[in-house]
From TrEMBL:
Originating organism: Paraburkholderia tagetis
Protein name in UniProt: YCII-related domain-containing protein
Top-rank lineage group of the source organism: Bacteria
């Protein structure tokens, strides 16, 4: 059995952060050029870490919250996710250092957390 563990990486981004506001203020042609650069860099990141990626995940859309009082539309900073396999939390975090989410795109950060086993009954 492998000593590798699963880690969930959650991509965060706020429309209120100055980098995001600057991104959307760019001329459309400039923003599209940066998007192409970011997508190419993201694809290169995927190729570099392909062996570690369990689920590429993807971008996240509009959020609905379900709770005791029903369903409501809401918003949060969650923008995407990826699941990786790594020997340790520290090694999993290193996979995301310098990621295009925040080096090219205006994302805020990436939270990386272990996926814990479901406790036995």
């Amino acid at each position: 059995m492998s000593d590798q563990k699963l880690f969930l990486a959650v991509f965060l981004g706020s429309k209120d952060n100055p980098r995001s506001q600057a991104w959307w203020a760019l001329p459309e042609e400039t923003r599209h050029a940066r998007e192409r650069e970011g997508i190419a860099a993201w694809k290169a990141w995927v190729e570099k870490h392909r062996a570690d990626i369990v689920d590429f995940g993807g971008p996240l859309g509009k959020t609905k919250t379900v709770g005791e009082h029903g369903v409501k539309d809401t918003s949060n900073a969650l923008t995407g996710f990826t699941v990786v396999r790594s020997a340790s939390h520290e090694e999993a975090v290193k996979l995301f250092e310098g990621h295009p989410h925040f080096t090219i795109f205006p994302g805020d950060s990436i939270d990386v957390m272990p996926v814990l086993p479901i406790p036995a009954g």
